Amino acid sequence: MNWSLLNIATNFNNLRYSVGIAMMFNGFPLIFFIRDTLGIGPASSVFTAMFFGLALAMMVPMHLFKRLYKPNVILLNLGLGFLLLTLYYFFFINKQGKAVADIGNYVFIFGFLILLLHVPNDVKETLVMMLFLMSLFTNVTLVYSILKDPNWTPGMRAAVSFANEGAQPGGNPHITARNGIICMLTALVMLNRTPGIFTKLFLFFSVLFSLGVVVISLAKSSYLAVGLMAAAYFILHFKVSNIFSAIGSAFKLRNMAFIVLILIGIRYFLIRYGNVLDMLLGYWDIFENRIMDVIFTSTGVRITDTADTDASAMGRVGGFGEFTETLFSWDVFLGRGYKSDYLDVPLLESWVSHGIFGFVFFAGFNFFLFIYAMREIKRYTNPLTTFLAYFFLSLMVLLFTGGRPYDIAFWFPYLVMIRFLGIKYLDNISRRQVKTQLTTVTS
């Protein structure tokens, strides 16, 4: 973690690019805090549009349409193919109506993509740091929001309550969990390359704080995402020799001091805030009960006596029935039309609504994203691409558990991945050039 990157005088352009991208990538938690907790701005989609408009304005470069940077071409073609196909369906095969919000979503998606193509490669270190700082700040605002909410009590899902009438009660805990995952991942990818012991401690406790936020969100998809990330790391990086090297390095003076400070910090926290740990354990019990409910709903197997039908899981079971019905009808080719059915399973909805071509573009896009993510997790190019690779695993879970295939909650992160994941960076090219020059000199 390089604090000098926050110097406005020397890093102004990268900072404004990074703030704009971070606002688009993970802006909803901040929007909810400003709009619903602080009561600033209208409690409607108008404020969201203003927020994203400001983010895009911060990304406008001085060289607009004069200098473009090459993205991942395969992801760009597949992603654009799906977006243009759904845009066609929106205008011409649409029985749901042409809502202003849908038009706005496409405007922001294509505007964000165009501006991302103007962002230089050397923004990557600043962007990771800005994503971390903004998500950490939002974690703090979440705690403030639920403490100020008279209707929230321990045991409830943690989220910012919406202020507009008729809104979803209790807010959106999936946004809370997503922000916690972003903060946790960015802190972890920077932790390994941070030299200062106090900065390491700051990042480490940010990871624990973020993990606590994920736990109290009670979002089952995020729990599964954390498990997938851990599994991907151990499968691609774990070696028995790493255990012995880790034990040996732990006895170095600097590392021992770091471990001692962590243990002191944890002990102080448990003594002073022991009730917080009890609350987290209580949330874990609630999560276990909900998992039993999902298993009972999906399979009919009652593992515990208290297992009951889970409403959200039942909705997805019904959505699979809609998919099967489409699969054995003429709609299998062209689909039923834009937003014809809400399946809560984006991968299946891409076929039901947009036919086989929609499924091929959307599934193909996510398949290649998975390939690039696994490759990046294995080789670790730089903190930004490593973060994006792990974060895709959380989006991959959502492909089967919630949302729609054209949600901006998917496509804003997707566009950042199109721009930065799986391409050759300038720093790698520079190292290769230096290596070539050294070979020429010595030969």
TL;DR of this structure?
Helix content is 73%, strand content 0%. It is mostly helical.
Helix percent band: over 70%
Average pLDDT: 82
Stretches with pLDDT under 50, minimum 5 residues: 429-443
From the alpha carbons, calculate the radius of gyration and give it in angstroms.
23 Å
Report on the structure:
With 443 residues, the chain is mainly alpha-helical. The protein is built from 18 helices and no strands. The relative contact order is 0.12.
What keyword list fits this structure?
O-antigen ligase like membrane protein; mainly alpha; 0% strand; 18 helices; transmembrane helix; 443 residues
Question: What is the element layout, followed by pairings?
Answer:
Layout: H1 8-25, H2 28-37, H3 45-59, H4 73-92, H5 100-116, H6 124-148, H7 173-191, H8 197-217, H9 220-237, H10 240-250, H11 253-272, H12 274-299, H13 311-327, H14 331-334, H15 346-379, H16 383-401, H17 408-420, H18 426-442
Helix pairs in contact: 1-3, 1-6, 2-6, 3-5, 4-15, 4-17, 5-17, 6-7, 6-16, 7-8, 7-16, 8-11, 9-16, 11-12, 13-15, 15-16, 16-17
